[in-house]
Specification:
Layout: E1 15-17, E2 24-26, H1 27-32, H2 48-55, E3 62-63, H3 82-93, E4 99-106, E5 109-116, H4 127-143, E6 147-153, H5 163-181, E7 186-194, H6 196-199, E8 208-211, H7 222-229, H8 240-245, E9 251-252, H9 258-269
Parallel strand pairs: 5-6, 6-7, 7-8, 8-9
Antiparallel strand pairs: 1-2, 3-4, 4-5
Helix pairs in contact: 4-5
Family: Belongs to the AccD/PCCB family.
Domain CoA carboxyltransferase N-terminal: 14-272
Pfam family, one: Zn_ribbon_ACC
């Protein structure tokens, strides 16, 4: 007599764990919800090219400066050399660098767009990222297009490039200032995470600053701040909702509504 029936093997990858609520959620449901947890509305991190598909009109993206690569000014070496680390992340992420920039359309409106991607050395800002942000800003100024930059950077300035990385903060900030003095519209979208040198420069200088729900936003992370000031921080400290409450953000927008909101802002605020 058989008392137990052998359980069928569960296919791998059907369920994923939410980083926020820790619940197991059905992968297909998450994918159909713009990579958002159906239980707690946490926005999973997504690749830059997936963001382009969600935000831009189909087949409208034209990428610029695709072959730009970093040099190795310090001959930096930790567990591996800097060129080896760059190559490893290129293979892992499918990207040449941590930033993708180019021209696209949002509901028919032309924009210049840049995206930093945490899948490549945590989206840290090296010389190539800074140069691409400056160039796309100058393109937007020349063409009189709105500029949209989506930030996802948990790595700050890239230590492997030393001062060449740090100077990108001033370089990108100056480019944004020139663009705004010329009357350009700049919209910054902050995703999880938006930290370090990116947040201390171009990501926080926009005319309109938007964040996705629950995005971690700041300069140093909360653990570093708590250890430095020796005080307990609020539970939602440096999350988008906390920053909106304290006036740092203009709005929090769900990923599924991002294209509509950016389109609406461009219609209202952009002057040709």
């Amino acid at each position: 007599m058989v008392f137990f029936r052998k359980k069928k093997d569960m296919p791998n990858g059907l369920w994923i764990s939410c980083d926020w609520c820790k619940n197991l959620v059905y992968r297909k449901t998450v994918e159909e919800s713009f990579q958002v947890c159906p239980e707690c509305d946490y926005h999973f991190r997504i690749f830059s090219r997936d963001r382009l598909k969600l935000l831009l009109d189909e087949d409208s993206f034209e990428e610029y400066w695709t072959d730009m690569k970093p040099t190795n000014p310090l001959n930096f070496f930790d567990r591996m050399s800097y060129p080896e680390r760059v190559t490893a992340d290129q293979l892992k992420s499918g990207l040449k660098e941590a930033a993708i920039v180019g021209k696209g359309k949002v509901n028919g409106a032309d924009i210049m767009i840049g995206i930093t991607d945490p899948s490549f050395i945590m989206g840290s800002m090296g010389s190539v990222v800074g140069e691409k942000i400056v160039r796309i800003t100058e393109k937007a100024m020349d063409q009189k297009f709105p500029l949209v930059i989506i930030s996802g950077s948990g790595g700050g300035a890239r230590m492997q490039e030393g001062i060449f990385s740090l100077m990108q903060m001033a370089k990108t900030s100056a480019a944004i200032a020139r663009f705004q003095r010329a009357g350009g519209l700049y919209i910054s979208v902050l995703t999880d995470p938006s930290l370090g040198g990116v947040m201390a420069s171009f990501a926080s200088l926009a005319d309109i600053t938007i964040a996705e729900p629950k995005a971690l936003i700041g300069f140093a992370g909360p653990r570093v701040i708590q250890e430095t000031i020796k005080r307990t921080l609020p539970g939602n400290f440096q999350r988008a909702e906390f920053l909106l409450e304290h006036g740092f953000l203009d709005m929090i927008v769900h990923r599924k509504n991002m294209k509509h909101e950016i389109s609406r802002l461009i219609q209202y605020l952009h002057v040709n």
